[in-house]
């Protein structure tokens, strides 16, 4: 899945004729945001959140790239063991007229198995993926503020946010129209309600202890609840 709207490589950041440049803080509707974004192929990542444009700053290895890679590796192992579940990195997601984010990762159920998002004719996600993950460093205020509200309003069932500087992972589940924290169990493991078997050892993830993270996840994948979930996912296709 692509991480941004299509752009030719190695192009200067120059808007098309007669279009204003896309700038941080612009207030736009989604169609106008897309027009300006597509006209500036040198921009690597921009998001529209509650009608406001946010453009990404350079990303540090320890503050973003490494935790991002660890989270995506964890999701990828789960996805590989769970048919009819798809995983993507930084997809463009068309939520509504005011919101077109590029979350750090998504996990979604195929529409054929009851998922709430789908691919548009031009190849982008539209609707609410079941799980969105974000790595928050300098963007923490956005990720916990306007973006969280947009995700909640759009019906994204679970939202995981890793605040790197605070060494904190929050995992929210949608309940009665609001996000409630999913508490860890006595072993410090958070278990997804939407994706049975998706288990996260929070302390191990924060410490970068991926063997322990993946061992905990494998235990979840081996659990009866995950096997039952797989049967539910493949039933509509049989």
UniProtKB/TrEMBL annotation:
CDD domains according to UniProt: DUF820-like
Gene Ontology molecular-function annotations: endonuclease activity
Keywords tagged on the record: Endonuclease, Hydrolase, Nuclease
SUPFAM superfamilies from the UniProt entry: Restriction endonuclease-like
Domain Putative restriction endonuclease: 32-203
Membrane-spanning intervals of the chain: none
Xref: InterPro entries: Nuclease_put_TT1808, Restrct_endonuc-II-like, Uma2
Sequence segments annotated as region (Disordered): 1-27
Protein name: Uma2 family endonuclease
Organism, scientific name: Planktothricoides sp. SpSt-374
């Amino acid at each position: 899945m692509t991480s941004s709207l299509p752009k030719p490589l190695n192009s200067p950041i120059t808007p098309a004729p007669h279009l204003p440049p896309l700038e941080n803080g612009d207030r736009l509707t989604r169609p106008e945001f897309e027009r300006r974004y597509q006209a500036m192929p040198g921009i690597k990542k921009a998001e529209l959140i509650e009608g406001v444009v946010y453009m990404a700053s350079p990303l540090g290895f320890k503050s973003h790239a490494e935790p991002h890679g660890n989270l995506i590796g964890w999701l990828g192992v789960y996805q590989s063991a769970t048919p009819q579940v798809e995983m993507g990195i930084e997809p463009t997601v068309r939520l509504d007229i005011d919101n077109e984010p590029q979350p750090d990762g998504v996990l979604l159920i195929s529409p054929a198995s009851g998922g709430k998002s789908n691919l548009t004719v031009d190849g982008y996600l539209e609707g609410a993926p079941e799980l969105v993950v974000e790595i928050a460093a300098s963007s923490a205020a956005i990720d916990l503020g306007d973006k969280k509200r947009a995700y909640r309003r759009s019906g994204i069932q679970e939202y995981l946010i890793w605040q790197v500087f605070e060494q904190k992972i929050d995992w929210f589940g949608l309940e009665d129209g609001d996000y409630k924290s999913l508490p860890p169990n006595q072993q410090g493991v958070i278990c997804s309600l939407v994706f049975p078997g998706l288990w996260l050892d929070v302390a191990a993830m924060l410490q970068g202890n991926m063997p322990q993270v993946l061992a905990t996840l494998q235990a979840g994948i081996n659990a009866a609840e995950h096997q039952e979930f797989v049967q539910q996912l493949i039933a509509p296709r049989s």
